[in-house]
Design goal:
This protein is of the alpha/beta class. It is built from 15 helices and 13 strands.
């Protein structure tokens, strides 16, 4: 197993930041160190969570649970529910799980006096309601052990950006383009027969001996915009990976995508061209790409590529104008994607994924790590996409306040008496 090689904590500052950006840098390092192509079986698990937590905190021979007890952090450990993730590679954690891992490591470092101060940036963003409520009790309630012990070493910060969604300010020429293309999309939508998009029968998925999904039965039809709700680590992303084909356990389960059973000889590209996907992984890949214009990011959606490597058609360029006008972002067309704010980047990636009018658009935590104004912008954009396109939206979140008017069905992950979750369906 590879040892994690993190950026050294600067002795002169003694600071440790917990933020989405720090999680991004951690994942970037893991990806750069991925040796899958050189390993037997073609799979490099990377640094697991236990090694990450121990690194830089204590002596190598120390055992994590002994250290947690010694540092009096058992209550925090229980609240964050990281036990079942200890053997999982960092690059396979969800964004919420990664943020929890960084948060706990910060307190381990503080307890062993490797740092002097923790800076928590947008701490509660991206975490499920239950975890947020318990963390607030630990950090903000007078008399709680964590507050009494560490209050002088914790700084809470919040980022804010002005963001608006006002379609009425779009230039007339762009509105005309929008109108013409909307009619074309409307025509396509009327000509389609409502069909089954996804079907799962008694689906079970296990990771590192822990059952993540248990006996899942589920159907999704065209036009049924849906919200999947559940706490961090309950299996939401795993469910999506069964649809996209990014989880190999799809082949040992009864999973049907667009009417075909996975593993029955279908081409992965036949499936991908009917899917649009926005996820933390996609955002990371574009942030690592370097210089690329917003227009080319959108155009790459037609080719399912990270970056643009083919000469686009005129009709595709017109589609770019349409979707940018829809989002009131026409002025961004020639800008460098890397220079946009994080929220604007997320909005552009949503437009990229819907530009080819896929049958199914998967939005995996589309508002994760966004400020309140950015989240409002992105949610309004999703609502508008639901109105303007023939695409069915599958929206995944841990936060009930992200429920949209266009979403007619809710699939909620609920804890069972045993370890694991069941799904409750509501229309």
């Amino acid at each position: 197993m590879k040892m994690f090689n993190p950026k050294k904590i600067e002795k002169n500052t003694g600071l440790f930041k917990v933020s989405f950006e720090e999680a991004h840098l951690l994942i970037e390092r893991e990806r750069k160190n991925d040796d899958s192509e050189f390993m037997e079986g073609g799979f490099d698990p990377g640094t697991n969570l236990e090694i990450f937590l121990l690194q830089e905190c204590f002596e190598k021979e120390s055992k994590l649970h002994e250290l947690i007890e010694k540092a009096h952090l058992q209550e925090l450990w229980n609240v964050l529910s990281l036990e079942k993730l200890l053997n999982r590679g960092l690059k396979f954690l969800s964004t919420g799980e990664m943020k929890k891992a960084l948060f706990f490591k910060a307190f381990l470092l503080l307890a062993c006096r490797k740092i002097e101060k923790i800076i928590l940036i947008d701490l509660y963003d991206g975490l499920d309601f239950e975890t947020v409520a318990k963390l607030k009790d630990l950090l903000e309630t007078e008399g709680s052990y964590l507050r009494m012990r560490f209050s002088n070493a914790i700084e809470m910060q919040k980022t804010n950006e002005a963001f608006s969604f006002d379609k009425e300010t779009s230039p007339k020429q762009e509105i005309d383009i929008r109108s013409a293309l909307s009619q074309e999309i409307d025509s396509n939508q009327r000509g389609r027969e409502k069909k089954e998009l996804v079907r799962m029968e008694k689906v079970n998925v296990t990771w590192s001996g822990v059952q993540v999904l248990k006996n899942i039965d589920w159907q999704l039809f065209e036009g049924e915009h849906s919200l999947i709700l559940g706490p961090n680590g309950c299996g939401k992303t795993t469910l999506l990976e069964l649809i996209s084909g990014d989880n190999p356990q799809v082949y040992c389960n009864e999973v049907y995508i667009f009417g075909k059973k996975r593993g029955s000889g279908e081409s992965i590209w036949d499936i991908k061209k009917q899917l649009g996907i926005v996820s933390y992984k996609l955002h990371l890949e574009y942030r690592l790409l370097g210089s690329i214009s917003v227009e080319n990011v959108l155009l790459s959606g037609f080719y399912d590529s990270i970056g643009l490597y083919d000469a686009p058609k005129e009709s595709e360029k017109k589609a770019v104008l349409f979707w940018l006008a829809l989002a009131n972002m026409s002025e961004c067309k020639d800008k460098n994607f890397a220079n946009l704010s994080y929220g604007m980047q997320r909005a552009i990636l949503i437009l990229r994924s819907v530009i080819k009018t896929p049958r199914l658009l998967i939005l995996d935590e589309p508002c994760h790590a966004l400020s309140p104004s950015e989240r409002s912008f992105v949610l309004a954009l999703i609502e508008e996409i639901a109105k303007q396109s023939a695409t069915t939206i599958l929206h995944v979140s841990h936060d009930e306040i992200e429920f949209l008017d266009c979403e007619k069905k809710i699939f909620r992950f609920l804890p069972e008496t045993e370890k694991g979750y069941r799904i409750e369906y509501r229309s």
